[in-house]
Amino acid sequence: MQYMLLIYGCERPEVGEPGFEEALARVNGFAEECRRRGAFVWGRPLQGEHTATTVSVREGRTLITDGPFAETHEHLGGAYVLDCRDLDEALELAALCPMAARGTIEVRPIAPVPGLYERAVDSAAAGE
After folding, report:
1. What's the sign of the alpha-carbon dihedral 67, 73, 76, 78?
2. For 91-113, how does the pLDDT look when each residue is reduced to its tens digit (9 = 90+)?
3. How many domains is the chain partitioned into structurally?
4. CATH classification of the domain holding 100
């Protein structure tokens, strides 16, 4: 079963900032552990919430707002998709994720929907 790990509230150093190389090594170590277990599907960080644009359609009108939808201190910072044996393995891997020590990891099963259009993501699009 596939699970999405949604990463919230984890400030991270940017390229060139102190601590970036150490943080990158921890994240790459986590991804390598997921690959070793055969669970890694993809994972990517998001740019900061200040880059977000929110789109909604109400009564046929498109509304576009700069910024994230929710006013919260914990913004979505990135996500992983893992193919795990069960929820227990997904939770175990979420606890190994280095961002769990700085923020919160929400673990949710991905819903299988028969007939839903899906396109395979190639390794270049997944950032591998």
Report:
1. positive
2. 999 999 999 998 999 999 999 88
3. 1
4. 3.30.70.1060
